[in-house]
Amino acid sequence: MKRVSLQSVVLFLTFSLSGFLAADDLESLKVRFQQERTLDVIERINTIQAIGEIDSEEAAQFLAEVIKDQSEKTSIAESAVRLVALHGHPVGIEAAIEHGFKNLPERSYWVIRECWDRDLSPGESKYIAESGLLKIPALPVSAQSIVLDIATRVKDPQIGECAVKLLGNRKIPAHNQAYIVDLVRIHSMTSAKKKLGRLFRVNDPKLQRSVLLALRQLEADDQSRTFHKALKSQHWTVRACAVDIFGDTRDPAVVKVLVPLLSDPFLEVQISAVQALRKIGGKDVVEVFIKKLGKQKGRVLDDIIDALLWLTGKDLGPNPISWKTWWDLEGETADIKGITLEEFERIRAESANNTTGTYYGLRVISRFVTFIVDISGSMEEPYEIDTTKLPGGRIGRGTGVVGDNEKGSRKREKVTKIEVARRELLSVINGIPNGTQFNIIAFESTFALWRPGLVEMNEDIRYDAVEHVKGLAPRGMTNVHDTLMSALDDPEVNTIYFLSDGAPTMGKVLDSDGILAEVRARNAERKVKIHTIGFHLDPKASILMRRLASENYGSFVER
């Protein structure tokens, strides 16, 4: 058994008899802290915590001095960092940046990151803007990114001026220079255009992509050469970014430089090229897409079909012969102006009734797919669907709409929402061709992946997937954010079908704007297509599901 020193006993009794000292007796606490220097960390922690509870500049200054003390134990210094961050006094963040990163081991840097992963006080923001950001070249590389991340939350325009000064600093490596470029962009520092153009020469994909985004926002027309050079970059992320920028110009003159990117070795670049050309539009683009139909497959084919619908108002599916026939007959007189979102959704819904191999009317063409299905408690609620009684006693389920030439009668069937979801998912699983890579994620308060990653469809896998779907049962709440992040973590998936019946009630992020921002950031380079299907959604949830689809290349279906 460990022996307790006499000094420890005396100190403990002193604290007990005095009621552990008044919280506002800072001077006594400071004296006590110094007297305890020879004790074990566990025997000193109460005193420093008591100091940290005092919200005063003097208490914060004392904790800052603890951080600056190179002889202090790491655990005590970490505690000082946590406590000094509580009340937002600028002396705390100053001590952490200028001394904490030097005195603490690198394994403790996460403490500083965590403590200032919040909105900064006015005093803290002022320190970062006036001097904190300029300390970056003197910091270890891993500490630089932490300070830069903190700086992105500071609104002071002086941040932009400091960032311009740091551009190209040789003590800041390329991946951290990318953060500085982002600050230049955020604060619209037009004076940095030439510096940014020179910085693009550094062969780092993250930095080059940040430079392109900054030059676009700063409307650096004099950097046209840089944008054209980016189209031939050895890094696919840079090429894709450049394609996006050319598409945003909506200039028909750039069609000829974008068409070759439809054959890029990387899928993400091909997707960018399709989306960019769709934005530009015109007969030349439609003709290019029709010629590509027979040469593309999977996700890119799916995007081209969508793009043709957007441009022509026609949904002729993936059959290149149908499109070529239509173009030969009507191409010369066709008015290619594009259609609205409402028109797109209406035409797609009408076409779905005549299309096989769909999931809630959405084509399943991609060969790298994840199906996400909501199994929260509300999925146990009753739901009415149309069923059509066909000749011979067969039952057809779906919309129940009977055409004029159909012989059959329609009736309503009441089932649970989870049963409807099971039926639809089982139907698509049974129709997926062998060789397709897919996964299933069921979510409620948490989420569960059927397989750790995408798995190739074969008959044994099909049987396992069917049995898994049959066993899905409602429970828990609705965790949208964490589930989507998990799905996007799979590096192979390029298309997601996301089904839910309600607004988020669990997860790291609950508000719609926050979820959309997180997905937008995670999907900026990947360009995963996210289709959304909603059951009886309230207005707020409906807006979220619609925006998830529209912001991520997909379509929204509401039941």
Could you characterize the architecture of this molecule?
It is a single chain. This protein is of the alpha/beta class. Among the domains are: 249-339; 358-385 and 417-558, Rossmann fold (3-Layer(aba) Sandwich). Helix content is 52%, strand content 10%. The protein has 26 helices and 12 strands. It has helices spanning 6-17, 26-35, 41-52, 57-68, 74-84, 90-103, 109-115, 122-132, 141-151, 158-166, 174-186, 193-199, 205-217, 224-230, 236-249, 255-258, 267-280, 283-292, 298-312, 320-330, 341-352, 417-431, 459-470, 480-489, 512-523, 539-550; strands at 358-359, 362-363, 368-374, 382-389, 395-398, 409-416, 437-443, 447-449, 455-456, 495-500, 529-534, 556-558. Strand 1 (358-359) and strand 2 (362-363) form a beta hairpin.
Question: Which helices and strands, and how do they pair?
Answer:
Layout: H1 6-17, H2 26-35, H3 41-52, H4 57-68, H5 74-84, H6 90-103, H7 109-115, H8 122-132, H9 141-151, H10 158-166, H11 174-186, H12 193-199, H13 205-217, H14 224-230, H15 236-249, H16 255-258, H17 267-280, H18 283-292, H19 298-312, H20 320-330, H21 341-352, E1 358-359, E2 362-363, E3 368-374, E4 382-389, E5 395-398, E6 409-416, H22 417-431, E7 437-443, E8 447-449, E9 455-456, H23 459-470, H24 480-489, E10 495-500, H25 512-523, E11 529-534, H26 539-550, E12 556-558
Parallel strand pairs: 3-7, 3-10, 10-11, 11-12
Antiparallel strand pairs: 1-2, 4-5, 4-6, 7-8, 7-9
